[in-house]
């Protein structure tokens, strides 16, 4: 094994205290400070790439950190930056540098989007009908796709200062052998089908083949976790799998724990527990409405009824929705969709204010009267309209308000006052709850008098990067002193002045708990949990505390192993993982060839009208699944123009597209203008049902469809549809 996993409370302290001789044989200050502003060996760029840039399906904001040498070999002699180079003047996230091993050439490369290699328009590197995550074909070929923003500010290209990037020198991929040191931040994500693990599978494949020079690997994490294991032996096995995936041994602080604790103080943990409200007329009425829907729906005899207002019930109705599609039962399908919304309202009622729950239902039913298709839609819409006023009246009765909200106000007022300079982060589960809490904090007179100045941070689909950057900058400067956020801020947010973390309505694992706790960086900071007595959040927090100790014991057990024993165990796990990966690839290939694309019809998931065939779909740049059949336009109406917070090199978004069958108006996706010529409907498979030769089914992601999808050829498309352009 040629790497390490550093197991610390924070990797920031590691970067400032860990011996640089571990990173390189030669260490001296870097000319042109790297974006992260930490000492690194001369000749290295330190570049961070977020996983949501690597793959759009990954919603987390963890980071892969790559360190690139600017010379051929840092051990062969002094490394120097080229004149005018360095991170100064370069846009963070848009450029990187690699050295070409085996030659004296120094290459400059610019990060592009998650595209196919630059062969032909069909993307032949993946083969016709290739399925999988963006860049998977490149991984199979031994090159590492490094997606970036592909942003062009003010209509121009971003270039590194002092260097030109002619188009014929631009490239989209880099070989792993071009990298000397690969740093994986939050390396506990290197598991299953994550982006991290896909990259490390390439690494291990090349290692087993003896194929070329490979980088050293450095993994950084506050906790590898236990992977759901509840006993020591299984926890040890899980952490060894993480080590095997990263080809690393594990390192943690032993001799200088006290010094580490002074550098990285742990917050004081408190449980602010509230009693369950004695009466809940609003929740009772919502459940009465759900029972009426159940009677109308006539659920299958084998349906297991779970408790309303729970995640288990939501899972059940999702299964019912799929079953309704498969059994040609639109009543079952639509009732399940509406029951899920009522269940969500109960969850909101349990976490937030009752009026937030009513708002949630009103948002869902807004405009539904104009999309009624049959008696099922009429019953569901009328049921809500008949009870809407009563729900609103019950929600305004302050006698039955959620006691958790009162406790949240008490907790915040305990730490904020006009004379106390506090800075806190409030974690909540969903974007909806985050927005509601932000509005509540803005309108709360007591918090205003205490000097609370809230702002919100959410994921990329709810906020632009510029908005998130502004909120974090204001929090750092103090013009905002309370960040209300989802799990997007659990990892990577480093605000030394933060002295309060509040977890509200969250059910997470031990890693997320430790990550959130680690945001409280200041001395004498506090970590507060607000939960109902005996409720799920309190129980989960206690379990996480136990698992945190179990993780430490498992790490200690692994470190007591001899190097030979550790290498043997990880090598065995790597062989097992390679075999499993090969079997999974065979399974994916069989699944994607189960039916011919032309034999599968795609139906609108709302009205169940057939609108296209699988053979109409093609994959553009391993990102966009578009319908290339001109007849498809007769099945949809256009809505508003899609506005994105960034621009792209080869395509621009167009109008939203919706089903035009009667009153359906189901949203399917949006048009994209590709290379300024081709106007292509970009569709999301979750909005369709699949009619296969063996019956109906549904999938959530395109990678799960049971047929192969051809790659889009721009030249072929133009030849067929724009002969004048080709000529």
Note the topology:
Layout: E1 3-7, H1 11-17, H2 20-23, E2 44-50, H3 51-54, E3 63-69, E4 95-99, E5 106-110, H4 136-141, E6 143-145, E7 173-175, E8 181-185, H5 195-209, E9 216-221, H6 232-246, E10 249-252, H7 257-263, E11 268-274, H8 281-297, H9 311-326, H10 330-351, H11 354-365, H12 375-395, H13 403-415, E12 424-427, H14 431-443, H15 445-449, E13 454-457, H16 465-477, E14 482-485, E15 500-504, H17 510-517, E16 526-532, H18 536-559, H19 563-592, E17 601-604, E18 610-613, E19 617-620, E20 624-627, E21 636-641, E22 651-659, E23 667-674, E24 678-683, E25 688-692, E26 695-697, E27 710-711, H20 714-721, H21 723-726
Helix pairs in contact: 6-18, 6-19, 8-10, 8-12, 9-10, 10-11, 11-12, 17-18
Anisotropy-based shape: globular
- Unreliable residue stretches: 8-172
Average pLDDT taken over every residue: 78
Order of strands, widest sheet: 2-3-8-9-1-10
Structural class: alpha/beta
Q: Give the oligomeric state of the chains in this entry, treating copies of one chain as homo and distinct chains as hetero.
A: single chain
Number of strands: 27
